[in-house]
Amino acid sequence: MKNIIKGLICLVLFLSGCGKDNGGDTPPVPKPDVNTLLVTQKVLTNSYLGNGPQWGGYDIVNAWTGNATLSEQDWNTLFKRVSFMRPSLIRIMVSQGWNYMNGEVYSPEKSDPVLGKILSYCQEKGITVQLGEWGHVGGSGIDATWVDHATDFLSYLVKEKGFTCIKYYTIVNEPNGDWSSTVGSYPLWKNIIQQFYRKMNEKQLTDKVKIMGPDVAIWSIAETSWVVNTRNELAEEVKAFDIHAYPNNDDVHTTSFLQLLKAYKAASNLDAPIIMGELGFKYSATSSLGKANASRIKADPFAADDSQMHVYDAFYGIDMADATIQVMLAGFGGVTYWDLDDAMYNDDGSSSSTKLKRWGFWNILGSEKFHNPDDEKIRPWFYTTSLLCRYFPSGSTIYDVTLPKPVKSGLRAIAGMRNGKVTIAIVNSSTNDYLFNLGMENGALLQGIKTYKYQSQQGAHFIGTVDADGFASPVDAGETVDLSGGKLREINLPAQSFMLLTNME
Predict the structure, then answer these.
(1) 391-411: buried (b, 16+ CB within 10 Å) or exposed (e) per residue?
(2) Strand pairing partners for 455?
(3) Containing domain of residue 452, as a range?
(4) Residue-by-residue DSSP string for 383-443
(5) β-pairing, 89-94 with 476-482?
(6) What's the CA gap between 281 and 317, in Å, rounded?
C-alpha cells in the first residue's frame, strides 16, 4: 500500500509539474466533455510484471531435422524477433521425458541445447521466466522419485546453470481439466504442491523461486473455487496466482470476459500477483469463424485439431489486443500469449507426428520440415502483441481509462507509466469508425511521442507501417502531445483498428 501511495504522489507531482504555465498560476482545469477517452489516476496494478509469449518446447527437433537443436540461423531469427518484442515475462513448460530423464537415468544436461539456449537469452535480457512442469508422475498418487528429480532439475537450472531469471514455478498444467495428469482432482494437486514445496525447501530453492498456481483453464466462474482454495489452503506454498483463458468472440466483444476476469482477480490474494498464464482466442464452433477454422485445419496436412488458423488473419491481431487490454483492466499482473512458434509443439508429443499446434507468430521450421518457407514469415498478430509487450514493461504502473459516452461497442483502452514515460493503447474491435477526444487527469505535455497504427483488412492484409524486418514502426515519431491543463487530442479510430502512443524507448 505504501508503494501504491508513493507511486500516486510521484505521478501527481510529475504530471502537475509538466502541466504548469510558466507565466503564472495554473489555470482551472476544464472538465472533459462526454466524448473523451480519459486516462485517469486510478491505479489498477502498481508494479506490472509484463507481457510475453509462451516459449520453449522444440522437443522433437531432433526427430524432425536430425539435429539436437535449431540451426544458428533460426536461433538468430528468433532472438531478433523476440528482442523487438522485448517481453518482460515468458512462460516455459518442461517434463521429465523431454528435459531431464533418459529412461531411468537422471540427465539434466539433455536440456542444454534448446532450453538452455532460451534461458541464457532470458537471463541476458532480464526476462522473468515462469517455468513449469506439464504434469506429475504417479497417476492418482505421487511418485516421490519424480518429485526428487523435478526439484533437482529446478536446482540444476537455477543454482548450477545460474538461470536466476526463473522466478516462478507452476506444477501441473491446467490441473482442473480431465486432460491433465491430475484429471481435475484438486486434493491430488494440493498434495503435489505441498510435497513439491517441501522438496524445494530442502534444496534451498524457496527463497529463489516462488510457486505459482493454480494454473487452471477457465470458461466461467466455476473454477474460482480453485483460486479461493489455493489462497486459503496453500498460503505458505503458493505466492502468486495464474489462470488460463481462451475466450470466444462473444465474450471479448462484450463486457462478459472483463467481468469474468474481475471475479478471478477478486478470488485471489490481492497482495499477490495474478497472471494470465495462457491467453489465446477460440471462436465459437458454431460461428462462421469457428467453422472456417475447422475447415482450414482439415485442409492443412500439418495442422493439429488444436490449432487456431486465424493467426494468419489480420483481425486476430485486433481480437488479441482487445483481450489483452481487458486482462490488464481487470488488474492482472501480466499476460503470456499462447504461443510464440508453431514448431514448438505437435499434437501428441511423439517423434512421428508432424501435426503442429498452429497458434504461433510463425513456424520457424517452415522450410526445413514443412515444405513452406513462407510459413516462417511474421504473421499479422505479432504487430499488436509485440507492441503490448514492448511498451508495457515490467515495473510499469497500470492506470484505468474511462471511455467516451454514449457507449462505443468494442472500444477499450489502457495506460501505463514507468520512469515518467507513458504508453496509451486503444483498440476498436467493432465494425464502426469512432471519433473522440483523448484526455488525461492532471495531464502533461507529452514529448517524444511515437504513434503506431494497425487496421485489419481482408485476410492477412492490414494497414500499418513495418520496417525491413517486418517489425512495427511508428507513423509519427518525436511528436509533442499536449494534454496539460485539460487539453484534448482528437482521435480518429477506424473499425477493426489499434493505436498505441508512447514516449518509452
Answers:
(1) bbbbebbbbbbebbeeebebb
(2) 463, 497
(3) 2-46+397-502
(4) HHHHHHHHTS-TTPEEEEEEPPSS--TTEEEEEEEETTEEEEEEEE-SSS-EEEEEEETT-
(5) unpaired
(6) 11
- Summary mean pLDDT of the chain: 94
Distance CA 358, CA 339 (A): 9
Query: Cell 487490454 identifies what position?
Result: 325
SS3 content of the chain, % helix, strand, coil (to 5): 35, 25, 40
Q: Does a structural domain hold residue 305?
A: no
CA angle 398/403/404 to nearest 5° reads 155
Q: What is the pLDDT of residue 20?
A: 39
Each residue's pLDDT tens digit, 403-454: 999 999 999 999 999 999 999 999 999 999 999 999 999 999 999 999 999 9
State residue 349's pLDDT score.
86
| pTM of this structure | 0.93
CA distance 326 to 315: 17
Helix ranges, 86-217 (H): 96-99, 117-125, 144-155, 186-202
Half-sphere exposure of 178 (CA within 13 A, CB side): 0
Distances in Å between the alpha carbon of 268 and those of 128, 264, 274, 275?
A: 21, 6, 7, 11
Whether 22 shows a pLDDT value over 50: the answer reads no
Is there a domain that residue 445 lies in?
A: yes
Q: What's residue 1's pLDDT?
A: 40
- Torsion (CA) 68, 73, 75, 77 in degrees, nearest 10: -150
Number of domains in the chain: 1
Q: Is residue 221 part of a domain?
A: no
Instruction: Locate all alpha helices (DSSP H) within 168-309, ordered by sequence.
Output: 186-202, 224-233, 249-253, 256-267, 288-299
Question: Has residue 425 been placed in a domain?
Answer: yes
- CATH of residue 476's domain is 2.60.40.1180
Split at pLDDT 50, 70, 90, the class of 352 is confident
C-alpha angle 329-342-165 in degrees, rounded to nearest 5: 60
pLDDT in tens, 451-476: 999 999 999 999 999 999 999 999 99
Q: Could you tell me if 411 and 493 are in contact, meaning their C-beta atoms sit under 8 angstroms apart?
A: yes
